[in-house]
Amino acid sequence: MKNNNNKKPIGKDEIRMHIVFYILVGIFALICLFPFILMITSSFMKEKEIITEGYKLIPKSISFSAYQFLFLNPTKLISAYRVTITIAVVGTALGLFLMSMAGYVLCRNDFKYRNQIAFFIYFTTLFSGGLIPSYILMVNGLGLKDSIWALILPGLMSPWSIFLMRNFMKSIPDSLYESAAIDGAGDFYIYWKIFMPLAKPSLATIGLFLVLGYWNEWYNAMLYIQSTDKYPLQYFLQKIVSQANVQLLVQQGLSINTADLPSESIKMATAVVAIGPIILAYPFVQKYFVSGLTVGAVKG
Fold it and tell me: Where are the transmembrane segments (predicted)?
């Protein structure tokens, strides 16, 4: 048997380079992690301590007043979570389906009008109709005032994501399409059974952007949503922060010291409540995210 251990030994200079690289990456990771740790610890600080000493990594004492205030009405908070999860799941699924189909069509060389349609999609990134036409379209044209669909439709399609999907699908060999077509497969079958499984990195990348967009949705809710039971999480939390005052605490019957009134710490608590679930979802798509972003951006 042949000896396959022909790897070149690593030199001392390369080892030093690796050590320096890992140290720099570790320092950068700690710098990125610092705001999250500060946010969590500050959400448990007393209001008086924040005002006098500012936000700290290690508070002198622990206070749950901010979270008590957030969960004064857990039913509405759960409802806001439900609305946000609904628009994130539905919007992401529809967005991936529509944009992947658009990318598949635009990557096909046998599609006659692909360049004209690609220019039309690109043109929308340069100009927009503006807020007033968009509002008239959503309210008067589509009748989506106070509707969940008013939160889903505006973020459903992204020209950048369509081009990312198209460029990624261009990297898939044409021989797969030709072989399936010879066997009698239709375009939708080829798209669904061949291109979609191979496009997982690109789908994960675009899906992550869509989920983040819908999860952070608040602006369209401010414009179109009137019913409190249809508030998404971010808009609901913004309402809570704006109502964090002594009068509301007294009305809700919460027993709390004046020094602990959560006008500052509640800002950090709302951030913890808002970003917690979405951070937990990121590791599941991380391995696809990098490859999808780089391949889709380079190919063309």
Answer: 20-40, 80-105, 117-136, 148-169, 190-215, 266-285
Is the Cβ–Cβ distance between 80 and 274 less than 8 Å?
no
Whether 65 contacts 72, CB under 8 Å: no
Q: Looking at the 3D structure of the chain, how many domains does it have?
A: 1
- 84 — phi, psi (to 5°)? -65, -45
- 288 with 201: CB under 8 angstroms? yes
Which is nearest to 91 in space by CA: 101, 99, 80, 81?
Answer: 99
Average pLDDT over residues 225-249: 77
The first and second tokens of residue 162, run together, are 């369509």
In a domain, 290, yes or no: no
Task: Kindly report the CATH number assigned to the domain that includes residue 133.
Answer: 1.10.3720.10
Which ranges constitute the DSSP H helices of 43-185? 47-53, 65-70, 74-107, 114-123, 131-136, 149-152, 159-170, 174-182
- Full residue range of the structural domain in which residue 146 is found: 73-242
- Token digits of residue 202: 């690109």
Query: Which of 214, 216, 191, 202 lies closest to 285 in space, CA to CA?
Result: 202
Rg (CA), the chain: 25
Judge whether 127 lies within some domain: yes
Nearest to 177 by CA among 118, 95, 105, 99: 105
- 189 Cβ neighbours under 8 A, 6+ residues apart: 180
Count of residues making up the chain: 300
Quote the mean pLDDT of the chain.
81
User: What pLDDT digit, counting tens, does each position of 241-282 carry?
Assistant: 776 654 444 544 554 444 445 667 787 888 888 887 777 767
**Of 170, 182, 190, nearest to 114 (Cα)?**
170
What letter represents residue 133's amino acid?
P
